[in-house]
Recover the amino acids of this structure.
């Protein structure tokens, strides 16, 4: 499924496609006859700058092993930072080269990167791209509105009707209709670090236009846990960097970006409560040990978000949480979880990964909230259930990978929640998805050597943001390579 945003151009070559009617290119490179498609999307703009995301798709029949995308930028455009690729620029000529973990693009697969740039001129789109020197010709006109591109109708695989056991009638608490607010253009003092943000954390609400973390604040480096905690609790916006192992319970206040490097690890747990506008990137959290089911259940989540909004969790590795790996509750909202890994490496009794909403009886705090996007995450092993288990919110789960064999279930839609489960890969797991008093629509998912329920009631919701979902068949390699702390 592809959704257009305010500016979208699709440049393609190789096999002719209905998308733009590109013509066959006879150009070849040293490794094989190469056929490609490049999607270039301007996802945000502000005075004097913009952000773009680029998807490189291999439309050929052989893998591309190592890639460089090149284009001529408009006069006055200067790339400032890039993620998931390294760049060089000479005049208007820009090139983006793969990093180690995304060098290979399987036939039919894709890789993506993004960048921010300054501009003293126009936001004109590049007229053409090359991949490894092969010209990707053809173009389409910019899309003038936010109308989604037409896609073929997906028909879910038929499943046997399942009649749940009779239960007492539950009357939900009446709530006002909630209309998503259009996302406003944000003009941070500095563009957010590694801003590849999409999903609910981009949506305006609760007094914020989007999620920028500590952008505009000072950049500091913590050399021990005391410094890390003092910076994280500060009332000032701040970008905080750390490396190595820190031990303890880290409490994070509003307007912070915390970025790890060189094997950064928090041994203990991280808590976000009554806060807003936070970005966590590129570090591991390993929960403290617990001795029994009851002891674990009474313990702490490795990462917990309570009564907080506009949070982006990106490229984290979260393991061995006592009660859970990562729970979201108590009216939290506008949250994106991307490119992260979840699992258990200890064989304890209580191995429940991601819970959204703590109780069916929490309508007074949770109705109309708990809206979360999960994309390009990997539940790699050890977890028994809750990947996620939801209540109340509108939960978008797309392009995630599930390989946690021996589990009870993966995704469960609970009381008053709506789950859109799209283009995920379930490999060797039990009960990919089920219902528990909720609503779930499943489209485009891959089920390989699975057993148990794949139940979908089919209405869910339409996300109020733009995104591009990769094919489920490409996820095993791309998500394993890209998810988690690096």
């Amino acid at each position: 499924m592809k959704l257009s945003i305010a500016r979208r151009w699709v440049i393609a070559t190789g096999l002719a496609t209905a998308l733009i009617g590109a013509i066959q290119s006879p150009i070849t490179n040293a490794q094989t006859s190469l056929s490609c498609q490049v999607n270039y999307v301007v996802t945000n703009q502000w005075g004097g700058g913009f952000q773009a995301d680029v998807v490189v798709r291999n439309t050929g029949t052989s893998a591309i092993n190592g890639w460089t995308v090149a284009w001529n930028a408009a006069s006055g455009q200067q790339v400032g930072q890039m993620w998931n690729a390294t760049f060089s620029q000479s005049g208007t000529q820009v090139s983006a080269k793969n990093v180690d973990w995304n060098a290979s693009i399987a036939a039919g697969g894709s890789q993506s990167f993004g960048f921010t740039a300054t501009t003293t001129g126009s936001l004109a789109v590049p007229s053409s791209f090359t991949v490894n020197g092969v010209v990707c010709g053809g173009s389409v006109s910019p899309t003038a509105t936010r109308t989604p591109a037409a896609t073929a109708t997906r028909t879910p695989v038929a499943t046997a009707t399942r009649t749940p056991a009779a239960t007492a009638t539950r009357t939900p608490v009446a709530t006002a209709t909630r209309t998503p607010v259009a996302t406003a253009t944000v003009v941070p003092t500095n563009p957010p670090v590694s801003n590849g943000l999409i999903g609910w954390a981009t949506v305006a609400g609760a007094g914020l236009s989007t999620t920028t973390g500590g952008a505009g604040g000072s950049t500091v480096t913590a050399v021990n846990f005391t410094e890390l905690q003092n910076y994280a609790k500060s009332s000032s916006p701040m970008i905080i960097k750390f490396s190595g192992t820190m031990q303890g319970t880290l409490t994070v206040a509003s307007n912070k970006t915390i970025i790890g490097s060189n094997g950064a690890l928090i041994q203990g747990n991280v808590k976000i409560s009554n806060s807003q506008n936070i970005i966590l990137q590129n570090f591991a959290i390993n929960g403290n040990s617990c001795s029994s089911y009851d002891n674990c259940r009474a313990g702490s989540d490795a990462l917990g978000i309570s009564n907080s909004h506009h949070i982006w969790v990106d490229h984290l590795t979260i393991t061995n949480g006592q009660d859970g790996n990562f729970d979201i509750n108590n009216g939290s909202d506008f949250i994106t979880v991307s490119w992260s890994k979840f699992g258990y490496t200890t064989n304890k009794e209580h191995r429940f990964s991601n819970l959204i909403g703590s109780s069916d009886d929490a309508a007074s705090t949770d109705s109309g909230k708990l809206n979360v996007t999960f994309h390009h995450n990997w539940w790699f092993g050890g977890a028994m259930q809750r990947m996620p288990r939801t209540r109340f919110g509108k939960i978008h789960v797309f392009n995630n990978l599930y390989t946690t064999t021996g589990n009870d279930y993966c995704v469960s839609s609970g009381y008053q929640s709506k789950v859109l489960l799209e283009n995920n890969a379930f490999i060797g797991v039990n009960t990919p998805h089920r219902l528990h008093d909720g609503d779930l629509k499943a489209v485009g998912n891959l089920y390989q050597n699975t057993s148990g329920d794949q139940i979908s009631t089919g209405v869910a919701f339409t996300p109020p943001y733009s995104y591009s979902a990769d094919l489920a068949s490409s996820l095993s390699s791309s998500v394993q390579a890209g998810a988690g702390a690096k």
